[in-house]
Each structure stands twice: as structure tokens, then as C-alpha cells.
Write a structure and sequence with these properties.
The structure is a homodimer. Chain A is α/β, with parallel strands linked by helices. The first copy, chain A, has eight helices and twelve strands. In chain A, helix 4 packs antiparallel against helix 5 (172-184) and helix 6 crosses helix 7. The interface between A and B is large, with 63 and 64 residues. Chains A, B: InterPro entries: DhaK_dom, Dihydroxyacetone_Kinase. Chains A, B: This is Dihydroxyacetone kinase.
């Protein structure tokens, strides 16, 4: 196992400790196990607070999205494992600024169960909690079963847009409406070339043959919809974009935002080659790219692969895309 | 070869095309081959301009450092190959705002030869050019031969500090002085776990056995100083930090800036575990970390590995570290 770690059992603890040392001006821990982290200035009084969470192993997801103009707090679990409801509750308590809390997280069984329980516990303390579950992965379930789809990199847009709305002083209902609107208008599809290695297991989570790729694979290695020989970047881009557009038609003349997300080991050079293909495919259909994000946003440790997310926008969503944010993972100086 | 590319011969062209499409508001090309790229607002009148360049395959180096508060232009070559003197000259002409141009680049034979020639050609056009060559890799040559060392991730500090000085309206001599001061006060040492694959070659540039690592390896796979079984993150950190501090003593009570650079495939989780170790080692010696950068700054495509750079600071360098910058690779919204 080629990793820079100490004890495989302490990977998450030491990662969190390093992160808190590095970003103590922006983040603080509200539990002795460091599994609940919030903005250093939390709670922000008079603002709807937004929390997320999930398993570790996806940096910058989730911790990288805490900050001004972004999220208020996160609960993090072990590698690929849900945090507990108590960890989520502690995050919730620490970020509540009097205007309620919105949970935004990916649609995975453990997370749903624990966030729902945390919401019930918060309710007992008179903290109003609403929930929007991200279900952007088109490959995970067919049409008609959208609400059963997994949440992957497109969740970034739910965060970004809802947080921008909260930053403007909107109510919990309004912030929730924006998160739901973002979820309804974003689709993601990924492709993996290599597996990742769970530190505590020490071997790859699955196998992909030399010269093979898997289209539609999830960020924990969930099976995709098509395995085959590696195609060119242009061919793969065509498959992903056309699947997304079949699932979510976008009218000619529309503006979209595009997120090209590296899953871990894929070089930025390849993400730009991929963006080039996606941009051209959209342009050919008369779809304009209003904004784009290219880099690592939701990883699977050292997995080689990428995903494409497309957000269908209107004037409201575009104005929220323009709101700046500051997080530990976006250096300013 | 597991890469998202089309034609191995077109990797750089298509990457540059994708990059220019994505960041047309911030970057522009000044040659039909796109190998000379400058700030969209270049030339900036009345400001010393800074140019860099080198081979492709190291994103965000070099292109990611062009922008306000950072560099003015770059010339880029093929994967791991120097750009031509003509490409550098075209960059130089396009960024010259009347106050001269500073070249900052890593110490590699082809780059030195071509940048020197470009400087001579610029001189014929009455553009004053000065040069500072980055030599931060302690592992590449022993003490006494510092000027023959390679330039690696620590070059980021030369860029950042010199650019901040230029932004403040300083003269070419002053900006050069800062770049030299940064180079004299920064040391880097890296460690690799896996090789990278040149697209046009299709196989790894070298082999490292399963369970082995190589300490001191360069960002093009240049041999390191010690190959052995993989050690823990804490042990590797100790080797790198103590080698750096032996080469460049840092007094108790000093302030430093630390850069933990991922070489490509190494997950951010591991970089934070590594930062934790580096921070603790410095703290034990009474050295305070004034600022830190953790992420990918100078990669070697999909190489797994990392490097540590330590910048010894004084009040002047710290005030320059605080100057904000905006580049295509640092999203603001």
C-alpha cells in the first residue's frame, strides 16, 4: 500500500488534526474526536446555517466547503463511513444562529439515517432543521427513480447556491428552495480508470483490467453501467454529456455551469483536455457555458477517473453562482 | 496507459486549448501554437513584468500562476521539454509594460539556454530582462553546489514574493532582489512512491518496487538520494525536514512558511497527515509556521509523492506573503 500514513487506523484522526492545525483561523472543532467541524466564527447570528457530512476520503469534500459564503459546519465519519447522529447533532448545535439549519448531503443509506435522527434530536431542542438530499448521479438509477440516485460531485452546486442564498439573508424555506432547485437542475456522470485503496484494508476496493475503464462508477467504487476498453477523452466526454442531456434536456440558447471533477489521481492536464471536449459538445448544441470549475472537488482518494456535472441555470441561479466564497481550500494569498 | 487523452501527440495542444477556453477572461494566447500565454490585461503599464516557463506536465505549474498579484506570462513546452527561445521572446514582448521583465524559472539545462537566448533577443529590442533561477531542491546537489541544484515546488515562493513586490510598484532591481532573497531562503525536498507516464511513451518513466519509495526524487523522475521500503509519514517528514534544516539552519523563534506539494496522485488526506508531522517537528524546534500552502502546486502528472518546501521569512517576506493574488486555478466564486 503506497500511502503517506502512520497507522491505518489513525488516518482520519491524523488528517483532521493536520487540517485543524493548518486552518485554525477558519475552522474549529466542537468535539474531542474532531468529527464535528464548524466555521471559526460559528454560529453566525441571524443567518440560516448549512451543514453537510459524510465519510472521509473525499477531500476537499466535505471539509473544504466550510467558510464564508459556503457551509457552516460538517460532520465527518471514517473513510467511506457515515458520521454518527450525535456528531451531526453537535455540528447542528454549534452552527445554529437562530434562523434554522439546512442539511445538504449525498443520498447514501447511513448518512440519511443518521442525519434524519440528528434532525429529530435537534427538533427536541427547538432547532428547526430542513433537509435536501443530493441525487445528481445519473448513472446510479434510471429515470423515474431520480430520488434513489446517489449524490456525487454535483452536490458542490447545492452547497454553493444554497450558501450564497443564505449569505444574502434569505429564510430557511428560501435557502431550501434553492438547494432543491439546484438538485433538480444538476446531473453528474463519472468514469473510473483505477480503484482506490482503503487504508485499513490495504488493497484495492475492486479491480479494473489494464486498458479498461468503467463508466458510471460511484465515488466509493459502486458499480457503473458499462465496463470496456479505454476510449479517447472525446469519446468518453460524448458518452457522459449525451447521457446527462438525455436525462435532463437543455434547450438551445441556455446557459449552464460545468464542473469537471478529478477523482484523485487524474492529472489536471487531462481534466483540461476533457473540459475542451465537453465545452465543444455543448457549444455544438447551442448551449453556452456560463461558468466552469475544473479540479478536484469530490475525490475517492487515489482513484484515477473524473466526473462531469452540468448545472442548468436561470437568472436566479446565475446570480447566486457569482457570489464569492472563502474556504480553507481556496487560497487567497 | 490509463489516461483521458485523445492523441498522445496532441496532449499539450489540447490541454492548452481547453485551458484557454476555460479561462479566456484571465488568459490570452499570443502565438498561434498557444505556447506563449499571458494575462488577459497584459501588458500592465508601469509594472515590472514577470515571466516563467518550462515543460508541460506540471500543472498548476506554470500556467496556474498567471494573474493579478502573480505572474504576467509563461512560455510552455511539450511534456517535460523546454519551450523555445522564440516562444519565450513572444511572451516577453507581450508582457513588457515599460519597466522591464524578470524571468524566474527552474534550473534545468534547456530552460536556462533558451531563456538566456530570449533575454539577449529582448535586449536587442530594448527590453531590459533580468533573471533569477530557482535552485530549491536540496536533494539534487550537495552544499557548496547550491547554484547547480534543480528548481522544484519552492519556486512558488519566488513567484509569489517577487510578484507581490512588483504589484506594489517596485523597480526591476527590487523585484529581482526579492526573488533572489526568496531563493536563498527556501529549500525543498521530495519523495516519490510511483512514477508517471509520458503520454508519447506510454510506459512509466522509471520503476519503483511495490513497497518502495525514493527520497529526493525530482519532478521529472530524476534519481533521488535514497531508495528503500516505505516508511511512515512521520518518519519521512523527519527525514525531509531535518535534511532541509541541516542545509538551511533556522533559528529558534523564527517564522517560516511551509508548502506541502502533492506530486499528482497523492490524496489531500495524506498531505494533511504529512503537514501535521512537519508542523510538529518545526514546533519542537521552536519554529513557528506563519503560513502554509497544502495541495498540488508543481506536479508530475500522475506521480504519487509529495515534497516539502520551507521558506525562512523576515518581516519583509511576511508582508509580501500577505498580498492577495488571483489566478485561474484559485476560484473565487
Amino acid at each position: 500500500m503506497k500511502k503517506f500514513i502512520n497507522d491505518p487506523e489513525k488516518v482520519v484522526d491524523e488528517m483532521l488534526e493536520g487540517l485543524l492545525i493548518a486552518h485554525s483561523d477558519q475552522l474549529k472543532s466542537v468535539r474531542s474526536d474532531n468529527r464535528a467541524l464548524v466555521r471559526a466564527d460559528a454560529p453566525v447570528s441571524g443567518k440560516v446555517a448549512i451543514a453537510t457530512g459524510g465519510g472521509s476520503g473525499h477531500l476537499p469534500l466535505f471539509l473544504g466547503y466550510v467558510g464564508k459564503g459556503m457551509l457552516d459546519g460538517v460532520a465527518v465519519g471514517d473513510i467511506f463511513a457515515s458520521p454518527s447522529s450525535q456528531q451531526m447533532l453537535d455540528t447542528t448545535r454549534s452552527i445554529h444562529g437562530g434562523e434554522g439549519v439546512l442539511y445538504i448531503y449525498g443520498n447514501y443509506g447511513g448518512d440519511v439515517m443518521n442525519f434524519d435522527m440528528a434532525a429529530e434530536l435537534a427538533d427536541l431542542e427547538d432547532i428547526r432543521v430542513e433537509t435536501v438530499v443530493a441525487t445528481d448521479d445519473v448513472a446510479s438509477m434510471p429515470q423515474g427513480y431520480e430520488h434513489q440516485r446517489r449524490g456525487v460531485a454535483g452536490m458542490f452546486y447545492l452547497y454553493k447556491l444554497a450558501a450564497a442564498k443564505a449569505e444574502q439573508g434569505a429564510s430557511l424555506d428560501e435557502v431550501k428552495r434553492i438547494a432543491e432547485k439546484a438538485n433538480a437542475n444538476v446531473r453528474t456522470m463519472g468514469v473510473a480508470l483505477t480503484p482506490c485503496i482503503l487504508p485499513a484494508v490495504g488493497r484495492p476496493t475492486f479491480e479494473i483490467g489494464e486498458g479498461e475503464m468503467e463508466i458510471g462508477m460511484g465515488i466509493h467504487g459502486e458499480p457503473g453501467i458499462q465496463r470496456g476498453i479505454i476510449q479517447t477523452a472525446d469519446e468518453v466526454a460524448n458518452t457522459l454529456v449525451s447521457t446527462i442531456l438525455k436525462d435532463m434536456p437543455i434547450e438551445k440558447g441556455s446557459d449552464v455551469s460545468v464542473l469537471i471533477n478529478g477523482l484523485g489521481a487524474t492529472p489536471l492536464e487531462e481534466l483540461y483536455i476533457f473540459y475542451r471536449a465537453v465545452h465543444k459538445l455543448l457549444e455544438q448544441k447551442g448551449i453556452h457555458v456560463y461558468s466552469r470549475y475544473i479540479g478536484e472537488f469530490a475525490t475517492s482518494m487515489e482513484m484515477a477517473g473524473l466526473s462531469v456535472s452540468i448545472l442548468r441555470t436561470d437568472e436566479e441561479l446565475r446570480s447566486l453562482l457569482d457570489v464569492p466564497f472563502v474556504t480553507p481550500f481556496r487560497i487567497q494569498n
